[in-house]
Amino acid sequence: MGAVTGAEVMRGLRAATYDVIWFIAHGSEAGVELSDGPLSGDVLAQFLRTHAPALVYLNTCASMLVAVNVHDALRVPVICSVGQVEARAALYAGAQLAHCLAQGMDVTAAFEASRPAHDTTYRLIGGGGQRMNGNDGQIWEAIHDLQSKVARLEAQVEMVLFGHRTNGSAWQWALIVMVGLAAAGLLFVAANANLRVLP
Questions:
Q1: In terms of CB atoms within 10 Å, which end of the chain has fewer, N or C?
Q2: How much is the mean pLDDT over the chain?
């Protein structure tokens, strides 16, 4: 396809309203890889805010953190991946999803039908439920917020497990280090307390 920049993506997204925004590219926790650098989830959400689609599909590697940011900002379903995705698997999953959506399936059903058997790579964030009125709506919003927090924590855990470098700020790293040191300190105190109890 050639060089694609963030400015070109922004112009394209502003030119029309889309039902599905679909990225097929290289990616990382930093964002969808474009010719002029990664397109982060926050910037993508900013581009989509005035004309939010019904679905965003990030068919890229390691796109969960980007997906969580887009979903939190727009409250639309986002399909993403955890870790590396094999090119052939990405192609087949994408083709099957397009087929299922064209057949009239809802997003959740299409996602489940398009995922390879026993797949742990692809995730759907925010696929279920609709906004409701009254108290049910407040309950749904509370559940939705909890789901977003869980998805964000899952993304952070996956980044640590896969050994990817995160894009976190210095205070986030300081917090992670402080929690780790506090846990180590508690283990040290517990070990010393046990040693004193034993003869």
A1: C
A2: 78
Cβ-contact 35, 8 below 8 angstroms: no
Domain ranges of the chain: 6-167, 169-199
DSSP secondary-structure letter at 199? -
Report the Cα–Cα distance between both ends of the chain, in Å, rounded: 73
pLDDT in tens, 16-33: 999 999 999 999 999 999
The rounded Cα 15 to chain-centroid distance in angstroms is 25
Could you tell me the two tokens for 97? 């999803």
pTM exceeds 0.70, yes or no: no
Helix (H, G, I), strand (E, B) or coil at 79: strand
CB atoms inside a 10 Å sphere around CB 54: 13
What does the alpha-carbon distance between residue 149 and residue 51 come to, in Å, rounded to a whole number? 25
Strand partners, 55: 20
